[in-house]
Amino acid sequence: MTTVAASLLAPEAYRLPGLIQQTEYLCNGEIRHWDGPCREVFSPVCHDGRPVAIGSFPLMTEDAALATLDAAVRAYDQGRGYWPTCTVSERISHVEQFAFRMQEVREEVVTLLMWEIGKSLGDARKEFDRTLDYIRDTIDAVKELDRVSSRFVIEQDVVAQIRRAPLGVVFCMGPYNYPLNETFTTLIPALIMGNTAVLKPPRHGVLLYRLLLRAFQESFPPGVVNTIYGEGSKIAGPLMASGKVDVLAFIGSSRVADALKAQHPKPHRLRCVLGLDAKNAAIILPDADLDRTVTECLLGSLSYNGQRCTALKILFVHEALREAFLEKLAAAVSALPCGLPWEDGVKITPLPTLKQVAYMRELLDDAAAHGGAVVNPGGGQANGTLMCPAVVCPVTPDARLYREEQFGPIVPICPFTDLDEPMHYVTESNYGQQVSIFGADSAQIAALIDPLVNQVCRVNINSQCQRGPDTFPFTGRKDSAEGTLSVSDALRVFTIRTLVAAKQTDENKRIITEIVREHQSTFLSTDFLL
């Protein structure tokens, strides 16, 4: 079936006009055309059990990728370029222009989020709108940071102004599950603080960036934003090996992050901002409110098919609640509507690839070999890339599901009688992002909180694990993260504190006063942003 014919599966408003042949990339302010090899893009949406082809993207060579990196290096110009030295208000103006241009292609981006990664219409709209909100919140946070920095401090007869300065060239790589939002949570703060960037879109969710190239080009000076496409192993490695990348902003697996970091010739000079693996656990105590707990665990485990780093990926349920919890959870999972992304009320949508479905099957078979069983009717059954969620109980320490991050619609249940069991799991885990506690006894919850905050970076009480609100710090311990992201934290992680200082002599007072009064410096300034 042709793409145009397959597109008829969707309502008219969300159909694709034909194959999207992505040949453009942005380099040094120019939208250039790639005439080399390309890779076909397949949608999670299937016809006759096979994913539908919807377009292609460039497989750029090492030389082409390095040329794009050089454009970012020239734009930064060792901190002397226009972008790192212009005023904060000027950078804000450029970002505001981009947000305005981005809004113009909202519906097209939402449609591609459905076709490229199988995200439901509601979640696709939410991702786009949340990204715009994040940009606006970042602008407000930059203004507040600049207001605080606009004053002078005097200590021990030394007068100084302390501000944050950019780090250099940022190599930004986002994940497929939130190809727009999570990519922009690193890209936008990096840019607004004066860094230049090379952006590599994720393999799933790549075509939607074609819609943003013109907005990037017309909103930012040449070389400030550049894009590359291709196989990460062939183009990301050489960029890192060049030594010209100052900051690696990467959201993905710790294995890939470690490989990229290892290729940089001067690792002590490389700043890393990493969002990595997670296997967030829920600890469900015997006095937990059953209805609330099931609702939160359902959302936490299966929102966007469980394809979130913050998803609840293993549930420890006290034996006293085991039967009642499983009965309610299985019924709730069975009631989740499965279907195509644009269908009204759909909750479970196709997985990105048939390979991912096969991996889910491997985990279920392995769990069964170690005594586990699917407890909800039809759980684990698949039609092409569309898989019905599976609740598996019991999952023992010998099963792969106990250790591996499934990143899909499987809910592992581990019954326990002794709290040492889930506490041992969290303590010994390679991951340390978040945990959820469900219960009513404040003393017992408090006794869990104190050790858990030294293992993970967020403890949720009677609620699912999640990233938001975006003003809260988002990070992890162990193999889960490096650096902290949030609206304000991200501004700090892509910068370094820098100051101008002078002894309080009459001559120095005169010099500083003239610089400030006559606006001779963009750094040394008392201008107050409104």
Structure description:
The chain has a seven-stranded mixed β-sheet with strand order 15-18-19-14-13-21-22, with helices on both faces. The protein is α/β, with parallel strands linked by helices. Helices cover 38% and strands 22% of the residues. The protein contains 18 helices and 25 strands. It folds into two domains: 60-275, Aldehyde Dehydrogenase, Chain A, domain 1, CATH 3.40.605; 280-469, Aldehyde Dehydrogenase, Chain A, domain 2.
Total of DSSP H or I helical runs spanning 4+ residues: 18
Q: How many β-strands, per DSSP?
A: 25
Taken from the alpha-carbon principal axes, the silhouette is globular
* Main β sheet profile: 7 strands, mixed
Which structural class fits the helix and strand makeup? Answer: alpha/beta
Question: What Rg, in angstroms, do the CA atoms define?
Answer: 25 Å
Helix content: 25-40%
Fourth CATH level, the homologous superfamily of the largest domain = Aldehyde Dehydrogenase, Chain A, domain 1
Strand content bin: 15-25%
Instruction: Give the C-level CATH assignment of the largest domain.
Output: Alpha Beta
- How far is it from the N-terminal to the C-terminal residue, by CA? 56 Å
Number of structural domains:
2
